[in-house]
Amino acid sequence: MNYLLYLIILIMFYKIYRNLKLYKLKNLIYSLIFIVLIVLIVLNPKNSIDAALRGIDIWFFTVLPSLLPFFIISEITIKLGIVNFIGNLLSPLMKPLFNVPGEGAFVFAMSVTSGYPVGAKLISKLRMENKISQIEAQRLASFASTSGPLFIIGAVAIGMFHNESLGFLLALSHYMGAITVGLIFRFFKYESIISDSKKNYKKDLKHSYKYLLKDKDIGSIMSNAVNDAMNTILIIGGFIIFYSVVIESLNSFNIIPHILNLLKYMDIYIEENIVKGFLFGMIEITNGAKILSESSNNNSLFVFVLLSIIIGWSGLSIHSQALSFFQKLILIINYICYQN
């Protein structure tokens, strides 16, 4: 039955491909992927519903209570001018190290504190308000989108692996890796630092301090912050549910046994849960870490390395969440340019 389904899908792919030109190949691939997902969901409705329910459970009981307060607080601090003041204050530190404005220190601190995808959300917010340039946003995105210690130490190390020391090791390597990437990417389009270096530090600091002390409508700021935070958390929940269904759909293809057979053919013997955890972790980080923790060799260095990789990679689910913020930013900027 499965082989018949594969054959039908291949024939469908070939028929569609013959009617399209090469420059449309990208859109073709996207279309075919989602067609396959629809077919798999229709063929396995119970498994898809169960996967969606697991995604809802993760989002509602873990993600929402842990991220929503940070989203609300970050929105309020930006509107009050706190971020702008901290940015100008720390500019002499962030410029030489990472070639980004001082606001990058706040973004990195919030990302480290609260985890994915707070960093991406704040970068898009700062860019939307024209507090950082496009190049500075690109540099900042290279290192200020990290996992949080609550997830690495609490959820993964203690909750899944029952090993507190592992959490500190993973967190240290994760944040040191992010800082290293930031130091490397400071040279990305390096010539732009020339125009940025002419900023008057004392003048900007004084101006931001005056704005910080200025009277503001705190009620309106809090209301807008809650509204924006709820919209963001709903987007995140949608992606978590979607990728939970994607993982279940891939599982119905029996991909893992095929990979294991291929590895055995090459005289490589790896436990099923390790292969499954790493593959699914590249799609959705929480599911992958959980599966890795259930392997019989969950205290081996090999498993720890794979776990560190998927935490650093963050998964397609987190990438999609970050892209949703950046894509919204691109659409707004294009609209403004069109109006002008």
List the topology elements.
Elements: H1 2-18, H2 25-43, H3 45-80, H4 82-98, H5 103-114, H6 118-128, H7 134-141, H8 149-160, H9 164-185, H10 193-196, H11 201-213, H12 218-251, H13 255-265, H14 272-281, H15 285-293, H16 301-313, H17 315-339
Helix pairs in contact: 1-2, 3-12, 4-5, 4-11, 5-6, 6-7, 6-17, 8-9, 9-16, 12-17, 14-15, 15-16
3D structure, described in words:
- The chain is mainly alpha-helical.
- The protein is 80% helix and 0% strand.
- The protein contains 17 helices and no strands.
- The chain has helices at 2-18, 25-43, 45-80, 82-98, 103-114, 118-128, 134-141, 149-160, 164-185, 193-196, 201-213, 218-251, 255-265, 272-281, 285-293, 301-313, 315-339.
- Helix 5 (103-114) packs antiparallel against helix 6.
- The longest helix has 36 residues, at 45-80.
- The protein is globular.
- The chain starts with a helix and ends with a helix.
The total count of helices amounts to 17
- Total strands: the figure is 0
Inertia-based shape: globular
Biggest sheet record? none
Class based on secondary structure composition and strand pairing: mainly alpha
Question: What percent strand?
Answer: under 5%
Computed Rg: 23 Å
CA-CA gap between termini:
58 Å
- Give me the strand/helix succession: HHHHHHHHHHHHHHHHH
Mean pLDDT level: 80
Helix content: over 70%
Contiguous uncertain segments of 5+ residues: 193-198
In short:
The protein has helices at residues 2-18, 25-43, 45-80, 82-98, 103-114, 118-128, 134-141, 149-160, 164-185, 193-196, 201-213, 218-251, 255-265, 272-281, 285-293, 301-313, 315-339.
